[in-house]
Amino acid sequence: MKKKLLIIYFFVNIITVFSMNTEKIEYFIIGNGNPKIVITAGIHGNEISGIIKVKELKKYTPKNGSILLIPEANKEAIQNNTRTEYYMDDLNRVFFKKGDNRAHKKAREIVKIIKNYNPILILDLHESPHNYDENKDPNLYMGNTVIFNENMPSDFHILTLDIVNLGFTPIVSSMDGTFNKEISDNLHIPVLTIELSKDESLSERSDKLDLILNSVYDYLEIK
Questions:
Q1: Within a domain: residue 12?
Q2: Which of 7, 78, 179, 196 could form a disulfide bond with 205, CB atoms 3.0-4.6 angstroms apart?
Q3: CA distance readout (Å), 44 to 54, 77, 90, 125, 208
């Protein structure tokens, strides 16, 4: 009997370890056909407004085109309400970087999903503790900005300006390893990173995301 229990215990632990090392990213596709866009949230687990909004979008059906949703890019961090977990590198610093850390594996899986889907645009939703201030720590003061790559196709300049007119400061991406820069540079897919501000209420942040999404839908005639 003891041998049987020991075998069962050993088997269960093998399954548990295997499950913990699997870096599958959950995603959903709504709508049908072109144009195709991707909306990501939860690269950092404590940036909740984007996570909530992308989950809400699962109930939405666009009349034209399709949207791939990744509501929880970093599920472990989301579950613990942390930017990233102590045993992981920052997910938004390891895209297209070599490594076997859990964050690297997640980044590679996200890249694979995007490659297979081949969208014309990606919206990457984030939050910052405070409103943007160029004279202060960019890790804390990036709220209400729209970040884009210097090689953003001219087709999307007007859309970017539309978002700027909603009250967002435009910033060119430059940090290596970030989702915005590396996806733009390596896959040649334009990425607009939206940084909301936790200085505003969750309701205010949600309303701003609705305005941005409506601008994107109108511009691409998805709505």
A1: no
A2: 196
A3: 14, 7, 8, 10, 19
Mark out the alpha helices in 84-147 (DSSP H runs).
102-117
Task: Read off the CATH number of the domain in which 198 is found.
Answer: 3.40.630.10
**The amino acid at 27:** Y
- Is 7 in a helix, a strand, or coil? helix
Q: Is 14 a domain residue?
A: no
Structural domain count of the chain? 1
> pLDDT for 50-72, tens place per residue?
999 999 999 999 989 999 999 99
Distance of alpha carbon 98 from alpha carbon 120, whole angstroms: 26
pLDDT digits over 143-171, tens only?
999 999 999 999 999 999 999 999 999 99
Structural domain harbouring 133: 25-220
Q: Which residue has the tokens 């334009």?
A: 190
- For the question of whether the overall pTM of this predicted structure is more than 0.85, the answer is yes
Distance of alpha carbon 93 from alpha carbon 91, whole angstroms: 5
- How many Cβ atoms from other residues are within 10 Å of residue 18's Cβ? 9
Q: What would the mean pLDDT of 42-54 be, rounded to a whole number?
A: 98
3-state secondary structure of 79: helix
